[in-house]
Design a protein that fits this description.
It contains 10 helices and 9 strands. It has one domain: TIM Barrel. The protein is α/β, with parallel strands linked by helices. 46% of the residues lie in helices and 14% in strands. Helix 2 runs parallel beside helix 10 and helix 3 packs parallel to helix 4.
Length: 214
Protein backbone atom coordinates (compact mmCIF):
# COMPACT_ATOMS: atom_id res chain seq x y z
CA UNK A 1 0.00 0.00 0.00
CA UNK A 2 2.69 2.53 1.02
CA UNK A 3 4.82 2.34 -2.13
CA UNK A 4 1.71 2.81 -4.32
CA UNK A 5 0.65 6.00 -2.53
CA UNK A 6 4.13 7.51 -2.74
CA UNK A 7 4.41 6.55 -6.39
CA UNK A 8 1.15 8.35 -7.19
CA UNK A 9 2.31 11.44 -5.27
CA UNK A 10 5.64 11.44 -7.09
CA UNK A 11 3.99 11.04 -10.49
CA UNK A 12 1.20 13.58 -9.99
CA UNK A 13 3.35 16.07 -8.02
CA UNK A 14 0.30 17.76 -6.46
CA UNK A 15 -1.70 17.05 -3.31
CA UNK A 16 -5.02 18.89 -3.06
CA UNK A 17 -5.74 19.80 0.57
CA UNK A 18 -9.42 19.88 1.55
CA UNK A 19 -10.14 21.88 4.68
CA UNK A 20 -13.45 23.41 5.79
CA UNK A 21 -15.49 23.84 8.94
CA UNK A 22 -17.53 20.83 7.85
CA UNK A 23 -16.57 17.97 5.50
CA UNK A 24 -20.04 17.48 4.02
CA UNK A 25 -18.96 18.59 0.54
CA UNK A 26 -15.57 16.88 0.51
CA UNK A 27 -16.84 13.98 -1.58
CA UNK A 28 -18.23 16.26 -4.27
CA UNK A 29 -15.11 18.42 -4.26
CA UNK A 30 -12.82 15.40 -4.44
CA UNK A 31 -14.81 13.96 -7.35
CA UNK A 32 -14.39 17.20 -9.33
CA UNK A 33 -10.67 17.34 -8.56
CA UNK A 34 -10.16 13.73 -9.60
CA UNK A 35 -12.10 14.25 -12.82
CA UNK A 36 -9.91 17.29 -13.59
CA UNK A 37 -6.76 15.18 -13.21
CA UNK A 38 -5.74 15.81 -9.59
CA UNK A 39 -4.75 12.33 -8.41
CA UNK A 40 -3.74 13.00 -4.78
CA UNK A 41 -6.37 14.35 -2.40
CA UNK A 42 -6.12 15.02 1.33
CA UNK A 43 -9.08 15.24 3.70
CA UNK A 44 -7.98 17.22 6.77
CA UNK A 45 -9.16 15.76 10.05
CA UNK A 46 -9.63 19.22 11.56
CA UNK A 47 -12.79 19.43 9.42
CA UNK A 48 -15.91 18.20 11.23
CA UNK A 49 -17.04 14.83 9.87
CA UNK A 50 -13.80 14.24 7.95
CA UNK A 51 -13.49 10.58 8.94
CA UNK A 52 -17.00 9.84 7.72
CA UNK A 53 -16.37 11.75 4.49
CA UNK A 54 -13.08 9.92 4.03
CA UNK A 55 -14.77 6.55 4.46
CA UNK A 56 -17.54 7.44 2.02
CA UNK A 57 -15.18 8.67 -0.70
CA UNK A 58 -12.81 5.73 -0.21
CA UNK A 59 -15.74 3.45 -1.01
CA UNK A 60 -16.14 5.02 -4.45
CA UNK A 61 -12.54 6.07 -5.08
CA UNK A 62 -11.79 6.80 -8.76
CA UNK A 63 -9.10 4.64 -10.34
CA UNK A 64 -5.58 5.98 -9.91
CA UNK A 65 -6.44 8.39 -7.08
CA UNK A 66 -4.53 8.27 -3.78
CA UNK A 67 -6.64 9.40 -0.82
CA UNK A 68 -4.88 10.72 2.27
CA UNK A 69 -5.70 12.20 5.67
CA UNK A 70 -4.22 15.46 6.87
CA UNK A 71 -3.80 17.20 10.21
CA UNK A 72 -3.16 13.81 11.81
CA UNK A 73 -1.86 14.73 15.26
CA UNK A 74 -1.71 11.49 17.22
CA UNK A 75 -1.67 7.71 16.86
CA UNK A 76 -5.41 7.36 17.47
CA UNK A 77 -6.17 9.73 14.61
CA UNK A 78 -3.78 7.77 12.40
CA UNK A 79 -5.59 4.53 13.24
CA UNK A 80 -9.01 6.04 12.52
CA UNK A 81 -7.89 7.57 9.22
CA UNK A 82 -6.35 4.36 7.90
CA UNK A 83 -9.38 2.36 9.01
CA UNK A 84 -11.54 4.79 7.03
CA UNK A 85 -9.46 4.31 3.87
CA UNK A 86 -6.56 6.77 3.98
CA UNK A 87 -3.48 5.42 2.20
CA UNK A 88 -1.10 8.13 3.44
CA UNK A 89 -1.01 10.53 6.38
CA UNK A 90 0.11 14.14 6.73
CA UNK A 91 0.65 16.40 9.70
CA UNK A 92 1.60 20.07 10.16
CA UNK A 93 4.36 19.09 12.59
CA UNK A 94 6.42 16.09 13.62
CA UNK A 95 4.43 13.72 15.81
CA UNK A 96 6.69 10.72 16.28
CA UNK A 97 3.79 8.54 17.40
CA UNK A 98 2.00 9.24 14.10
CA UNK A 99 5.10 8.27 12.11
CA UNK A 100 5.54 5.09 14.13
CA UNK A 101 1.87 4.11 13.90
CA UNK A 102 1.77 4.81 10.18
CA UNK A 103 4.78 2.60 9.62
CA UNK A 104 3.14 -0.21 11.61
CA UNK A 105 -0.02 0.19 9.57
CA UNK A 106 1.94 0.13 6.33
CA UNK A 107 1.14 3.66 5.14
CA UNK A 108 3.55 6.52 4.44
CA UNK A 109 3.58 9.51 6.77
CA UNK A 110 4.54 13.03 5.70
CA UNK A 111 5.06 15.17 8.83
CA UNK A 112 5.54 18.92 8.76
CA UNK A 113 8.76 20.80 9.48
CA UNK A 114 10.34 24.07 8.44
CA UNK A 115 13.98 24.50 9.45
CA UNK A 116 16.76 22.20 8.22
CA UNK A 117 17.10 20.76 11.73
CA UNK A 118 13.39 19.98 11.92
CA UNK A 119 13.37 18.50 8.42
CA UNK A 120 16.32 16.23 9.19
CA UNK A 121 14.75 15.11 12.48
CA UNK A 122 11.48 14.26 10.75
CA UNK A 123 13.30 12.28 8.07
CA UNK A 124 15.37 10.35 10.60
CA UNK A 125 12.19 9.57 12.53
CA UNK A 126 10.99 7.47 9.61
CA UNK A 127 9.01 9.91 7.45
CA UNK A 128 8.40 8.94 3.83
CA UNK A 129 8.74 12.61 2.85
CA UNK A 130 8.68 15.88 4.79
CA UNK A 131 6.09 18.62 4.42
CA UNK A 132 7.77 22.05 4.44
CA UNK A 133 5.17 24.14 6.23
CA UNK A 134 4.27 26.95 5.93
CA UNK A 135 6.04 27.07 2.57
CA UNK A 136 5.00 30.61 1.67
CA UNK A 137 7.25 32.05 4.38
CA UNK A 138 10.34 31.15 2.39
CA UNK A 139 9.05 30.54 -1.10
CA UNK A 140 10.82 28.53 -3.80
CA UNK A 141 14.17 30.17 -2.99
CA UNK A 142 14.06 28.84 0.56
CA UNK A 143 13.16 25.36 -0.66
CA UNK A 144 16.09 25.41 -3.08
CA UNK A 145 18.44 26.55 -0.31
CA UNK A 146 17.28 23.79 2.06
CA UNK A 147 17.64 21.12 -0.61
CA UNK A 148 21.28 22.03 -1.23
CA UNK A 149 22.55 20.34 1.98
CA UNK A 150 19.64 17.85 2.17
CA UNK A 151 19.21 16.69 -1.45
CA UNK A 152 18.02 13.17 -0.64
CA UNK A 153 15.00 14.13 1.48
CA UNK A 154 11.75 14.36 -0.52
CA UNK A 155 10.17 17.71 0.35
CA UNK A 156 6.51 18.63 -0.06
CA UNK A 157 6.07 22.40 0.41
CA UNK A 158 2.56 23.25 1.61
CA UNK A 159 0.82 26.35 2.87
CA UNK A 160 0.06 29.51 0.91
CA UNK A 161 1.09 28.14 -2.49
CA UNK A 162 -1.01 29.51 -5.33
CA UNK A 163 -2.00 27.56 -8.43
CA UNK A 164 0.30 29.71 -10.56
CA UNK A 165 3.25 29.35 -8.14
CA UNK A 166 3.19 25.56 -7.98
CA UNK A 167 5.55 25.03 -10.96
CA UNK A 168 8.16 27.32 -9.36
CA UNK A 169 8.29 25.10 -6.27
CA UNK A 170 8.61 22.02 -8.45
CA UNK A 171 11.43 23.63 -10.42
CA UNK A 172 13.10 24.38 -7.08
CA UNK A 173 13.20 20.64 -6.38
CA UNK A 174 9.95 19.86 -4.57
CA UNK A 175 8.95 16.19 -4.60
CA UNK A 176 5.35 17.44 -4.77
CA UNK A 177 3.38 20.46 -3.61
CA UNK A 178 0.37 20.65 -1.33
CA UNK A 179 -2.25 23.25 -2.29
CA UNK A 180 -5.28 24.05 -0.19
CA UNK A 181 -7.41 27.19 -0.27
CA UNK A 182 -5.83 28.75 -3.41
CA UNK A 183 -7.07 25.66 -5.30
CA UNK A 184 -10.19 24.62 -3.40
CA UNK A 185 -11.36 28.13 -2.51
CA UNK A 186 -14.83 28.06 -0.94
CA UNK A 187 -15.89 24.96 -2.89
CA UNK A 188 -15.58 22.93 0.29
CA UNK A 189 -18.46 24.89 1.76
CA UNK A 190 -20.80 26.65 -0.66
CA UNK A 191 -18.57 27.63 -3.57
CA UNK A 192 -18.80 27.04 -7.30
CA UNK A 193 -17.66 23.56 -8.33
CA UNK A 194 -17.31 24.68 -11.95
CA UNK A 195 -14.78 27.33 -10.89
CA UNK A 196 -12.99 24.66 -8.87
CA UNK A 197 -12.73 22.49 -11.97
CA UNK A 198 -11.19 25.36 -13.95
CA UNK A 199 -8.59 26.00 -11.25
CA UNK A 200 -7.77 22.30 -11.04
CA UNK A 201 -7.40 21.99 -14.80
CA UNK A 202 -5.10 25.03 -14.84
CA UNK A 203 -2.98 23.49 -12.11
CA UNK A 204 -2.72 20.11 -13.82
CA UNK A 205 -1.88 21.73 -17.16
CA UNK A 206 0.89 23.80 -15.54
CA UNK A 207 2.45 20.73 -13.93
CA UNK A 208 2.22 18.70 -17.12
CA UNK A 209 3.84 21.50 -19.12
CA UNK A 210 6.68 21.57 -16.61
CA UNK A 211 7.15 17.83 -16.92
CA UNK A 212 7.20 18.02 -20.72
CA UNK A 213 9.85 20.73 -20.59
CA UNK A 214 12.07 18.74 -18.24
Amino acid sequence: MAPIAMEVIEESRVIAVLRAADADRFGAVAAVLADAGVRCIEFTLSSRGAIEALRAFAGELPAGVALGAGTVLDAAMAEAAVAAGATYLLSPALSVDVVERGRRLGVPVIPGAFTPSEILLAWRSGASAVKVFPASLGGPAYLRAVRAPLPDIPLVPTGGISVDAAPAYLRAGAFAVGIGSPLVGDAGETGDLHALRRRAETLVAGVRALDRAA
